[in-house]
Amino acid sequence: MGVPMPSEVKSSERQFEVQWDPHDPAEANTYPEVVAAIREQCPVTWSTGRWSVHDSGFWLMTRYKDVRAAGLDWKLYSSAGGAAPLQFDLEVFRNGFLETDPPLHTKMREAVTPFFLAPALEQHEDGIRKIIDELIDEAVAASPVDFVETYALSLPSRIFFELFLHEDPEEIRFTIDIVRGLLKDMASAAELAPKLQAWCAVAIQKRKDRGERDDMVGVIAHMGSDDFPVTDEMRIETLMLLIMAGMETTANGLGAVIHTFATNPDARREMANATPDQITKAVDEFLRFSSPVPAAGRTLTEDTVVHGCPMKKGERVTLNWLSANHDPEVFPNPDVLDLSRNASQHLAFGVGYHKCLGMHLAKREMRLTIEALSKLRVFELVPGAEINYRNGPARGLMSLPVICAR
Ligand code: HEM
C-alpha cells in the first residue's frame, strides 16, 4: 500500500483498515512515512497484510504510549507464539528465549546475562577497537568502498564470533553466510536453519565433552537444574538466538551513523569534538531515529479493547517500535535527527522482559565507531550514489558507497 487515505477509515468495529505488509521490499525506503501516516489517522489499526506464510490479518499499534504499555504487559501480549512481525515456522526455528514467556524465558536469559553486562564488555573494549581499526584499514585500502558490506555488516559478526564464541576465523565465514541467509526471507530460513542448528549443536557438544563451563557456549551447554530442566533443543535455540540477534540489527544501527557521517560533514565534526556524554546521547538518537528493528509480533492471550478496538484472544498484534520512536507526542520534530536530543526513552531495544539483552554491546560498537570515524581525514558519500533500504526483521541500508582516507 502507499500512504493510507482517509477513505480507508471503516465505520465497522475495525475502525481503520489498511493492507500493510511489515516486510514489503517495495516499501523499505518509505517505511517511516507509511507508518507515520497510519499512526496519525488511528492509534490501533487492523491490517489485512500477512503475518506468516499462511496467515494474514493483525492489529498494528503505532503510538508510543500504547506500544510501550503492550510491550510491558507480557501476560496479555505473549511472545510464545513468535516475536517476529512476519513469523517463520516455530516448528522449524524458534528464536530461543525471545519467543517464550516468563518464567522459562527469564531463567534462560539469566544464564547468559553476565556476558552482556558492563564488566564483561569492558574486557572486550580493546578487542573491539582492534577489529574496528582493522576494518577501517581494509576500507581505506579499498576506497571507494561499500561501507555497509566492508564495515557495518562485518563488525558485529567479527566481534561476536571472535570475542564471544572464540571460534576459528575460518568457521566465521561459513556461519555468517548462514546467518545472513536466515535473515533474508522465510524460504532461506527454512533451508538454512538446520545448518546453523547443526553448527551450534557441535559447538555445544564440544564444551560438554570437555566439561568447559566458563565461556558463553560452555554456560549454555551446562545450563539447567532439577527445577529448570533444559533440553538440547533449547540450548541450540539459545545459541542461535544470540548469534543472530546482534548481526543485522547492529549493522543497521551502524548504518545510521555511517550514512549521517557520509552525507553530513558537520555532524561528523560535531562528534569529533564531543564529550563521552554527548556521544552516548548521540548513540541513543541514532537508535531512535533509525529503529533498526522496526517491529515485534505478539499474540493476545485474552480478549481486550484498546482505543475502542475489540481485540480477540489468539489474534496477532504488531508493536511498531519505529513508529513509537517517531511519535511527536514524545519526541518533538521526530523526523529530524538531532544529536543533542535526549532520546534515552526510545523503544529501539524494545521494553520489559524482552528488552534487548545485547543493547550495551550494540551501543558500545556504535560509540567506538563514532569515535573512530570522526577521526578520519575523509569520509564522504560517492557522488551520485543512490541510497536504498532493505526491509525485514531488521531494516537498514542496502549499501553505502564511501570515499574514505586516514
Ligand atoms: C542496534 C542493535 C540492536 C537492536 C536495535 C536490537 C533490538 C532488539 C529488540 C527491539 C528486541 C526486543 C524484541 C521483542 O521484544 O520482541 C531485542 C531483543 C534481543 N536482542 Fe537485540 N538488538 C540489537 C543488538 C543486539 C545484540 C548486539 C545482541 C547480542 C547478542 C542482541 C541480543 C538480543 C537478545 C538475546 C534479545 C532477546 C531478549 C529477550 O527475549 O529477553 N541484540 N533486540
From TrEMBL:
Q: Which residues form a coiled coil?
A: none
State whether keyword Manganese applies: no
Keyword Amino-acid biosynthesis recorded: no
Taxonomy, superkingdom: Bacteria
What Pfam families does the database record attribute to this sequence? Answer: p450 (PF00067)
Listed GO MF terms: heme binding; iron ion binding; monooxygenase activity; oxidoreductase activity, acting on paired donors, with incorporation or reduction of molecular oxygen
Q: Which UniProt keywords apply?
A: Heme, Iron, Metal-binding, Monooxygenase, Oxidoreductase, Plasmid
PROSITE patterns given in the database record: CYTOCHROME_P450
Q: Which family does it belong to?
A: Belongs to the cytochrome P450 family.
- Matching PANTHER family, A to Z? P450, PUTATIVE (EUROFUNG)-RELATED (PTHR46696)
**Protein name, entry field:** Cytochrome P450
